Amino acid sequence: MSFAFHIAVVGATYVSMPFLSKERPIDTPIIMELVSIDDITAAPPRPTPPPEEKPEPKPEPEPVKASEVAPPQPDQMPPPPDQKPLKKEEAKVEPPKPVPPPPKPKPKPKKDEWADLQSLVKDLQKKETKKEQQVATAKPNDSAKVITPNVAEKATMTERDAIAAHIEACWRIDPGTEGVEELSADIRVFINPDGSVQQAQIVDMGRYLSDSAFRTFANSARNAVLSCGKLPIPLQRYNELKDLEFTFRPQGRIN
Amino acid sequence: MMNRFVAIALAVLAMMSFSSISAVHAQVKIDITRGRVEPMPIAITVFAGSNDQSKQVGRDVSEVISKNLERSGLFRPLDPKGFMQELTSLEVQPRFPDWRTLAAQALVQGVVEPQPSGQLRIAFRLWDVYGGQQMVGQAYVTQPENWRRVAHIMSDAIYTAITGETGYFDTRIVYIAESGPAIKRLKRLAIMDQDGANHRYLTDGANLVLTPRFSPTSQEITYLSYFRNVPRVYLFNIDTGRQEVLGDFPGMSYAPRFSPDGNKVVFSMAQDGNSDIYEMDLRTRKTTRLTDHPSIDTSPSYSPNRDQLTFNSDRGGSQQLYTMNADGSNVQRISFGQGKYGTPVWSPRGDLIAFTRINQGNFYIGVMKPDGSAERLLAEGYLVEAPTWAPNGRVLMYFAQGKTASDGSGGRTRLFSIDLTGYNQREILTPQDASDPAWSPLIP
After folding, report:
1. Which of residues 77-106 of A touch B (CB under 8 A)?
2. Chain A residue with minimal CA distance to B14?
3. Looking at the partner chain, which of A67, A102, A253 has a beta carbon nearest the beta carbon of B33?
4. How many domains does chain A have?
5. Within this chain, do residues B270 and B386 fall inside the same structural domain, yes or no?
6. Residue B305 lies in a domain
7. In sequence order, what are the beta bridge partners of B77?
8. Does any domain span residue A68?
9. pLDDT single digits (tens) A73-118
């Protein structure tokens, strides 16, 4: 009875507070092609050469001069050609269908509100204790793949291992990058029924546009997904595994 | 009443977190923690030209870019024979699916256009093949004989756009060119581009020269020369050819090195059988003594922020590495391994100190953090010595000498580069034997 009431309260809260469910599952995919990397990384479009920069040719002294040619002057670079073909590609991409909201629980008869709230808090505390026990007993170094408890029912360890191994074989990483051990990037990936990648989005686009080290790292992660061919996802498991989020973090584990 | 309110608030909070957890159920999250250390496949097309001269320059520029990137160890230029699209103009949009078929992750296209003035306009675009976007585009107008410099500048732009770090291709190396028999060795200062091109001698060999070091901010070097058999530290401007003695000191001065801002030179000076470290302000010519210890303190090198110096000293009984504050205070020993340590050089990015280590008859080039932790040996040999950093702190150059055979053959000294991963060791070809390399900053 108490359980049913809790479900009812949770459901009512969920439905009456739309901001709780509004953002994460139905995120509008960020369209990669609309981001102009050029604006961030390219040299200024009109690098006007400094007027007096050309050094005067100097009389050659006894010891040999290392350079006698005037340095090259930067010139105006036109913007990249029209990228309409990209937009066509973009049009092909079908964003994932929004996840339907959970079914509304049936209304339950009213009971003593205070007693129910106390029992609810107790139940939640029990759940938390159980979770902590599970975390404490788990061996963190058993596998590189972290099991997220709330998705355990969606993907088995074997499936996650197979997908991770597939992507890891395609991920090129530069271990000489300063601070590479601390970098991590999330890539959200939508899969076609045949296992090919429909779309790969860098999740943190704000950091992508402002942090060059992260941009390099995130590009390598995205390219790993896009260059790796079809993921090992059986057709019968497509519905559960069509929406993935990879977290790329080397943590010193570089083959 | 208060308890009741707190309990309700807690319950609501718990429910909120529960429902937000349920909201992310849509995704399966997978950690990717292992990568492969492999160079990135990159397609570099031959730069298009409109006449014989510009076509030849186009071929040369793309070849130099290709070799620069390949030598860095981070890129694998693809064989142009496999390219399915000819990019004859910068206005031609690459067919990205075709380039993806070749597994190219980046694409370079370029053109060389003759100008009415007789100069050449050389331009390129770098494309992110999987993102379908231009990453960088640049154009330069220059004299035709300067095409190689443009190729190095473009290589740096490509390297920076892809790796996020400053390039090091538009740089030069000063080193000691050696020739002649061991008893009458001719040693001359020589300079070349970082890839070995444009080689020239700067001195004629009349006086012995040693330990050239580049200024981090200008095309100026400091070195030790035995002019009239008196060892002194000299300054030499390689653009003007002007040379001057650093100072007329009572003792022998050696092992000079510039401060990161180029305004000071730190060096060793031996007086009455004791070597200590001194610093000279090049603007005021004022000399300051930094160490005062009855041991041999030498090979000083500044940290990039000028707060500290590293040097080697035998004050602990054997030659080891130390750090100290820029005013000479707070001396700390940082090396504790077996054998001897010497020639410490602080990385331009500040995170590492490169050194030479001698242990059980073998020489090593290694790096460690400034606190002495995380020591890694990158290269080993019969004699490897004198590491110098590329300006981006990613690559080291050093010299290696082979064993001399009983008949006097062998024993060549050669230059090598190696990156921080230790995976990518390359020889830098020189016309004669070579030692004591010094890497320049990016050419302004």
Report:
1. 77-78, 80-83, 85-86, 89, 99, 102
2. A124
3. A253
4. 2
5. yes
6. yes
7. B42
8. no
9. 888 777 777 544 333 333 333 333 443 444 454 444 444 555 555 5
Question: DSSP class of residue A170?
Answer: T
Task: Tally A–B CB contacts below 8 A.
Answer: 292
Q: Which residues of B touch A140 (CB under 8 A)?
A: none
- Residue A223, in any domain of the structure: yes
> Average model confidence (pLDDT) for chain A?
64
What string of DSSP letters covers B90-155?
Answer: TTSPP-HHHHHHTT-SEEEEEEEEE-TTS-EEEEEEEEETTTTEEEEEEEEEE-GGGHHHHHHHHH
Average pLDDT over residues B386-408: 90
Domain endpoint, select from A114, A137, A160: A137
**8 Å CB contact of A13 and B19:** yes
Q: Judging by beta carbons within 10 Å of its beta carbon (0-12, 13-18, 19+), is residue B337 exposed, middle or buried?
A: middle
Residue B97 counted as domain residue: yes
The first and second tokens of residue B132, run together, are 């379908």
pTM above 0.80, yes or no: no
**Which pLDDT score is estimated for A252?**
53
- Is A109 near chain B, with CB under 8 Å? no
Q: Give percent of chain B with pLDDT exceeding 70.
A: 94
> How many C-beta neighbours within 10 Å does residue B156 have?
20
B70: domain CATH number is 3.40.50.10070
CB contact under 8 A, B421 and A176: yes
Distance from CA of B130 to the nearest CA of A (A): 6
Q: Are residues B205 and B143 in the same domain?
A: no
Please indicate, yes or no, whether residues B334 and B194 belong to a single structural domain of this protein: yes
CATH number for position A224: 3.30.1150.10
Whether residue A250 lies within 8 A of chain B, CB to CB, comes out as yes
User: Tens of pLDDT along B134-164?
Assistant: 999 999 999 999 999 999 999 999 999 999 8
What is the pLDDT, as a whole number, of residue B190?
Answer: 94
Tell me the mean pLDDT in the region B102-121.
Answer: 95
- Chain B residue numbers touching A121 (CB-CB < 8 A): 7, 10-11, 14
Nearest to B36 among A61, A151, A255 (CB): A255
Partner-chain contact B90 A81, CB within 8 Å = yes
Structurally, chain B folds into a number of domains equal to 2
Residue B209 lies in a domain: yes
Q: Is residue A126 part of a domain?
A: yes
CB contact under 8 A, B200 and A145: no
Element (H, E) at B290: none
Residues of A in contact with B201 (CB under 8 A): 64
Confidence of residue A53 (pLDDT cuts 50, 70, 90): very low
Cβ-based contacts of B243 with chain A (< 8 Å): 63
Question: How high is the mean pLDDT of chain B?
Answer: 89
Residues of chain A contacting B421 with CB distance shorter than 8 Å: 175-176
Evaluate whether B105 touches A226 at the Cβ level (below 8 Å).
no
Quote the domain boundaries for residue B64.
Answer: 40-163
- For B42-62, write each residue's pLDDT tens digit: 999 999 999 999 999 999 999
For β-strands B28-32 and A243-248, DSSP reports them as: parallel
For A244, the domain range is 149-248
- CA of residue A63 relative to chain centroid, distance: 57
